[in-house]
Structures are given as C-alpha cells and as structure tokens.
What does this fold into?
Amino acid sequence: MNRILIKDAKAQGSGQVTLAGFIYNKRLHKGLAFIDLRDVSGVMQLVFEESNEAAFNVIKDLNLESVIKVNGELKEKPSRKGQEDAPKDYEMLVSGAEMLSAADENLPIHVLQKGDAEPDIDTRLNWRFLDLRQPEHLKIFKVWTEFERGLRAYCNAKDYTQIYTPTLMSTSSETGSEVFEVKYFDKKAYLGQSPQFYKQMAMSVGLEKVFMTGPVFRAEKSFTTRHVTEFTGWDFEISYADHNDVMNEEEQMIQSGFKAIKEKVDIDIEVPTLPFPRLTLKEVKEKLRANNIKTDGEEDLNPEEERGICEIIKKETGHDFLFVTEYPVSIRAFYHMRFEDRPEITKSFDLLYRGLEITTGAQREHHIDILEKQASEKNMNLEELADYLNFFRFGCPPHAGAGIGMARIIMKMLNLSSVKEAIFLPRDVKRLTP
Amino acid sequence: MNRILIKDAKAQGSGQVTLAGFIYNKRLHKGLAFIDLRDVSGVMQLVFEESNEAAFNVIKDLNLESVIKVNGELKEKPSRKGQEDAPKDYEMLVSGAEMLSAADENLPIHVLQKGDAEPDIDTRLNWRFLDLRQPEHLKIFKVWTEFERGLRAYCNAKDYTQIYTPTLMSTSSETGSEVFEVKYFDKKAYLGQSPQFYKQMAMSVGLEKVFMTGPVFRAEKSFTTRHVTEFTGWDFEISYADHNDVMNEEEQMIQSGFKAIKEKVDIDIEVPTLPFPRLTLKEVKEKLRANNIKTDGEEDLNPEEERGICEIIKKETGHDFLFVTEYPVSIRAFYHMRFEDRPEITKSFDLLYRGLEITTGAQREHHIDILEKQASEKNMNLEELADYLNFFRFGCPPHAGAGIGMARIIMKMLNLSSVKEAIFLPRDVKRLTP
It folds into this structure.
C-alpha cells in the first residue's frame, strides 16, 4: 500500500492507509501505546495494542524522533470531556509497523511541542536539523517557497527573463566595501556582493526585463540580528523605466507573493493593498519630528528612525510597507541616476517593511560620460570598472531596478527574532557549520 | 504614448504606436532612411522621410546599436516581387524620434544578422553583452527561463519545498576533489561543490520533498566544452523513495520543463515522451558491443560511449533521453546505497541526454552504521564528515535524489557548441571576466 500524508489521511477519515514519519511523542497506558506521528503535513495519533505483538514490539523500545512506517485503520478520535464541540479529529489503530530509522536516546535538543520554551539561538543553529523539525519552524520554508512562487508568477506573466550571474568576480566589485577573497588557481577572485553590474549588463544585452535569485556575500564583521555573511538576493531590472516604474513593479510582485502564501500555507497573513505608501526622505524626517521622534541628520535613516516611521505609517494607513524616496547623492552608489533639476538627489528608493529596510532600488545612470564623472567623484577606480563601463558605450537602454533581501522579508513577515531564523543554514562571522 | 513591444505592434498592424530598441541595421535610399529596430520581442523596419527633418536628424548620424525611441504609424509592408504569398509584415512610418543612448562607432564585435559567421568563442565571451544581442543567442535565456518555470510548476504542484543552502562551507566537502578556498576572516572556508549534504539534511529535518537551485563550484583544471568552474545546479531530494522513484519524478519534471518552453518560446522543440528508456550499465555495454562500438572496461562510460549509446537508443526508440542504472560501487560516492543482495552495485543512475551526462542520482544510505563503514572504505575523513553523519543519528527517513546540470541540458537542447554558450557569464580556468 502506498504511503499517504497525514493531512490526506485526515481528509479521508476512514479506511486502511499507510503513514510514515517521526515519533513526536509516545505514551504507554494499560496495554496500549499512543504515538504522535509527525510528517511534513501534520501530526496524527497512532494507537498500538499490546495484543498485536508484532507491531507493538517494533515501537516498544524506540526513542523519540525515530522514523517508522505504519498501516492500519483510520478512526474518529473520541472527543475529550467538555470538548464535544471541537472539530473532528482522527487517529489510526495500527495493524502493522516497520522501523525505518532509529534515533539515539539522547537528543542534543528536543523537538519541542507547541508552547515549550526555545533553547538559545546558537544551540538551535548547532542542531539546525533538529531545530527545524518543529512544525512552526519548518513552516518558514513553506512560506518562503510560496512567496517566491508568487514573485515568479508575476515575473513570468510579465515576460521577464531569468538570468544566473556569476558569484566569482575578478575585482572587488561595486561598493569597495569588504569582500571575500578566493584562491582561484594562480589568481585571486572575489565573491560578489551583489549582481548589480551583471543585471545591468542584461539591460545592455537588450533583455529588457530580468529577474534573478542567488547568493550574495558580505565580509562585514556585523553581529546584529539582521546581518549574515551569505544571503539570498532577489533582484530585478527593467529597461525603459525609472525608479517610479520599479516601485510600481515591486509592489505588485510582493502582493503576488503574499497571495501565493495565502493560497497554499495555513497561516494568518494579510495581503498588502496597493499602492504602498510613498514618502520622500524629507517628508519622513518631518513626520518623525512631528511625532516627537528624534532624528539623526537629514541624509539617511538609522534603524530607530526606520522603526519609528513604519509605526507611524501603520497607525495612519494600516500599511506595513513604505517606500522612502529621494535619498541624497552622499549615501547612494555612484551609479544611481540624479534628478536633472536637483543634482544632489538620486532617483532612488528604499522599501521598508515593519521597520526594516528590505530593498534598495534606483534608476541607473546610463550615460557613459555622466557615469564616469559620478564614479570618479566617489573615488571609484575607473580601471577596475572598465568591464562595467563598457556596457554603456555601445548603446544601452535607460533602466532601473531593485533587490529584495528575501530572508529579511520572511523574518518580518513571521515575526522571527533574527534573520538567521529565516535562513536554512545561516553563515555569520563566527558560523560556518553545520 | 506608452512604448509597446514590436511583436505587439505587429499583432496590432495599424495605428499610432511608440517603439524603442537598438538600431540593428540602417540604409539610406533616395530621401528615405530605413532602420531595422530590434527589441526583445522582434525586429521591425522603420521608415524615416528626409522631409521630416526633426526625426531624420536624430538618426542621421547615429551608429548601429544606438538605442532610440520612435513613434509613428504602422503600415503593412509592401511585399517583395515574387514573394506576394509570404505572410504579412508591418513597418512604421516614423513621425517622431528620440535618441536614448548613442553607440560608439567601432563595435568590438558586430551584432550579427541571421546567417553571418560567428567570431571565435573567446572573442564572443569577451564582449558577451554584444554577443548576446543576437536574437538567436538571447533566446537561450528565454528557453532556460521557461524550462525552469516548467520544473518549478511540477515541484509546486507536488508540494515540494524550496530551500537555499549555503555556498560557504567549513570543510572541503563530499568528494575530496578540488575545491576553491576562501579567506573567511581569520579562518578558511571552501566553496561548495554540491548541495548534496544540505539537501540530505532537509530529509533529516522532515521536509520530505525539496528542490533547490544555486551555484556550485569545481576547481578543476578542465578545458573541455562541457566544464566550467561555476555552474547552476538544479537539485531535488525526496523521502520514503528509492532511485526508481527519483527517475519517475525526474522524467516528469523534465517533461514539464519542455512543455513550458513550447508554451512560451517560438522554437522547434519536441516534448519527450514518458517513460524515458532505462538500461543497466551492463545492458549498455552489451548494446554498445552488439553495435560494434569499442567499450572501455565495465565500470563506467566514457564520453564516446555516452554518445554511442544515445545514438543507438535514438535509432531504436526515437528518444533523446536514457537512464543508465546500476553503476558499481567503485565509481560512486560513499553515500550511494547498495543493493542488499548485490553489494558491489549502487542504487544509482545517470541520465544521458543527446550523448551527454546531465544528471547523477541515487538512493542515499541512511543507516548510520553502514554509512560510516562505506565512508571509511572510501578513505573519507570521518571527523570532517561529523556534521553530516549526525543527520542520521536521530531519525532520518530513507531518501533519494538527483541533480541536473542546467547549462548542460540547455546546451544539448539548443545544439550549442559549448556549455559556456548556455551560461550568461561563464567562468573557467582562465576566465573571470567580464
């Protein structure tokens, strides 16, 4: 008999089925053994009768988290006293059992039941494969899967092309900040901090609309809850577009992501309405001061200001997202386009979500003469940028784009305490394992 | 007026529209200029009248590959003499034009028209952003996009979870072969040769069915047409499954990919029928000899044998794909499960496509005692494998999986001369740019 999922067995409600999963809980009681069996779809109580020796002996001495396969009869679970109105649940009276994988007795961390207290994050990450067995943790990756499915559904419907760009680069990349160095045969290579230059190259190619996902690397000694050394970026870039077009595109993409989650994951989540609120940096600063939140200069937002403005916007509009536009040249990359009539302001934006920056976007400067001038002003090495600058010498459509930090949006969506919780196997300054 | 795509303009056939793209070709002729405008969707002839000075002056001195925006009236293109029965085509009589990006006069390589001879591959890769402007080259990434969309459609329909696994590893990984070393703060890290261990960890987590895509790295000094140092892997892994289940899954996934291409890309491609042919390695060797192809030992297939058997199967069945099963222990990784009654044979397979290996798959050994024994036999360092071996100590479902080399399947699908042609920006022993 083919094994089916627990959620499908519950939907079926009766008959003979085969199930497989982990022993989540085990109780012995007057000639009976009760096992809570856990698979990827849910948990079901199994009832073993001591009189069925063959099956009983399989599980009698098995430790928690061992993996078994069972077959038997589905039955409605007797309701508990005082809970006669609760929705129907089902259990299985086991007729046959097979041990597939025995767990050692001493689990390094317990697979917690709902409501149990969590171990500290380092212990959890050391034993990530046990930590993630908790249904609530495992759900993080279901949410990510469906969110990305939604982003892709949007891009596919709009005829985007997907590209994969290289991780290995010959120079230390766009921002000049800390990069990881790789021994590359008899040369040095560097791990990309962003696919920025390559997705712009796709515009020079004429692909017009591209999206991509892949790892990006930051060799920064940051120890915050929102920094890791390797993370998954979601990037897109579009031709014949400015920063406003990119914001229009991004909010639809994200809305599509939320809808996809709601379709497939059993989770209490609200699909954001369109358009997302938009404020200039200047307006944000004014609003912060009007709400008696201390501001720190006029050029950028610090984490407290980001949290503050998101709380204000949430109160005013009910919205969790906020586009902040018109950042000054001083804090933006050399390739951000500037307003012709206000050359100190870039055509750029950040997207904040529940108090955290999850996106930086901008129209890019595509005029080679202006681009070279802006790069020089920012003390970039034009020689190291030669390959990049070439993209603009032989015809390049105007273009704009943005990147989303996927783990950051998932972290905030699920109210996780750290971006590391949203990452399958996070890497930070101290952590390269498991 | 909003710019529309050339293919949409052709579908519309008349009226005032705005287009934008590259100047693919330019001809002057008795008071007229003809420009072939190329965008991501196609090519259209633009007609400029010298009498419309404003528009004519914009393009008069522009070099090929400059980017322009034009508006004007769509008209049916007069048919050529002797071609009166050809399908209708359309051109635009331009009323207004704007220069968006001027190209330098001397293109390092020309953007070829259909039928022109290609420069050598190194020159093409040096100027990849010009090389890819050719509609036939650009199509490679449309095909990849849709193929992956099809793979994902299959996985999403079957409730797979997507994971992203780290690229940075603390040890030099599964096979012990050449890996790239990274300076990681005061430590050493290595770039992953495959996500093998991590996707197996997802089975120990209880995710049951996962897929993933991301870069993998090989520090091998290989100079063939099918080797690069960084490539995109498509991996999947499923619990409560053996190698036969994985082959069943993979052939459906691939078929879904081909169907997605056919839906969206204008290309002559055949959707493969199911099931894909399957032969044991022993049967392959016998068939090769029966067809007078020289075989090289009994333990593996060399590239000529792979090409040979695929040609034979193509002739016999019309099929481009072939699963080869039952490889001996000697040439397989330590974690491949072995047949209980034939311990010298692994429960593994390769998938060949048009003469090239594009997949290795297997059921994995999930019994910790057997796994440790097999690792020791293969002279693996058990201490370095400690994190991996732990996955099997606390309950791990039986599982199996496979990985697909995406660029290899695209290369063979489109009859490209090298895997590098299928990669947006390939990296090899000598190439780290652009």
Q: What stands out?
A: The longest strand of chain A covers residues 15-29. The longest helix of chain A spans residues 135-157.
